[in-house]
Amino acid sequence: MAEQATAGLQASTAEELAAARWLDAEQAAMRQVLAWAMDHDPAAAARLADALGWWWLLRGRLPGQYGLLREVARRAETGSDGWCAVQLRIILAAVFSLDLTGALEHATALRDAAAGRGPSRELADGLFGRAIALENLDRPGEAAEEARGRWPWPGKSATRSGRSWP
């Protein structure tokens, strides 16, 4: 249901409002489901955290989920689709929390995990996250080199999740 609501957040204005209100009303239930999944089904926890990421971002709550997202990623299988999706949310939470070194670390981990996949959305997210972190760490030359040297714009077939930044 959270994934359906997230799709609504990215749709028309009426659907976005309805989805946001549903997630607002179900906030406590989503938190309980996420806590249960973290202990019993880390892959499901990663999917749920990724789905809730848009809502947290739109509601200005993403920085407050930084620790939770790191714990979800810690429990997920490194390099899995869910782990990669959560890493993207962590990168954004770190940037919005002004933990630029943390953002760089997570973006590097995402880039490195996705590098073996060839051109993919996950690799693009890792490289983009690194470029954002490096730029904000006042390292623009490295940021430009990172983006210029290895930017893998994936085709539709390479985009497994269909997600877009952020």
Q: Could you characterize what this model shows?
A:
- With 166 residues, this protein is mainly alpha-helical.
- The protein is 72% helix and 0% strand.
- Residues 154-165 have low confidence and may be disordered.
- The protein is built from 9 helices and no strands.
- The two termini are 20 Å apart.
- Helix 4 runs parallel beside helix 6 and helix 5 (66-75) packs antiparallel against helix 6.
- The chain has helices at 2-9, 13-25, 27-40, 42-58, 66-75, 81-96, 100-114, 121-136, 140-150.
- The longest helix is centred in the first third of the chain and has 17 residues, at 42-58.
SSE layout:
Blueprint: H1 2-9, H2 13-25, H3 27-40, H4 42-58, H5 66-75, H6 81-96, H7 100-114, H8 121-136, H9 140-150
Task: Provide keyphrases for this structure.
globular, 166 residues, mainly alpha, 9 helices
Give a nutshell description of this structure.
The chain is mostly helical and about 170 residues long.
What general outline do the C-alpha atoms trace?
globular
Cα separation of the termini: 20 Å
The helix/strand series, from N terminus to C terminus, equals HHHHHHHHH
Kindly estimate the percentage of residues that lie in beta strands according to DSSP: under 5%
Structure class? mainly alpha
Low-confidence spans: pLDDT under 50, at least 5 residues? 154-165
The biggest beta sheet is recorded as:
none
- Estimate percent helicity: over 70%
How many DSSP H or I helices?
A: 9
Average the pLDDT over all residues and give the rounded result: 83
Number of strands: 0
Q: Round the Cα radius of gyration to an integer and report it.
A: 16 Å
| Assembly annotation | single chain
